[in-house]
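Cross-check.
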Amino acid sequence: MKAKVLSLENAVVGEVDIDEKVFGLIPRADIIKLVVDWQRAKAMSGCHQTKTISEVSGTTKKPFKQKGTGNARQGSLRSVQMRGGGISHGPTTRSHATKLPKKVRRLGLRHALSAKFSTDKLLIIDSLELSEAKTSILVKILSNFSSKSFFIITDGLDANLALAAKNLPNAVVTPQIGANVYDIIKHECILVSKAALSALEGRLK
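Predicted model, tokenized:
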């Protein structure tokens, strides 16, 4: 497969051969969703927790005598039915991560890249290096592309580019090893440097 190579001014500067097995698949939403669900579950902190009866602070004294009050018998103020008592079967600190085979994760990444390439939203850029770490320079560059949000994949993380993108809510910069399905699907346009393209193909073949 052939793909256009663009400059940062969105001008065609050449062509490159790309692997059809990585960028030319018919996108499958079910595989992409599997990987996105796996990513989001793994990203959950899982730090929510309620206190059980043994963890609630309070006295162990019986609230009132067993008989003669007309109330239902009670053995503790920390019981789950009492105000301020423990919680029964509440959430506990745990990991929400699920298991997903590495082959499926790689396949999901290939389908996500293919989905963007098929809609002309994956653009190969000759070079993604900035001379200065200035947000204004990056804003001007991104204005050449008619998209609202950008996921920028570089071969090695360029310090100037990373610093320039920090103040932009619509742009994320990552080295190719950090390319993932969720960010690819989340952002409208994917900018990939020519060097990162080769590394991605090597990973996903």
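The helical segments are 20-23, 29-43, 102-118, 135-142, 159-165, 181-186, 194-204. Residues 2-45+97-204 form a domain with the Ribosomal Protein L4; Chain: A; fold (CATH 3.40.1370.10). Passed to J.P. for a second look.
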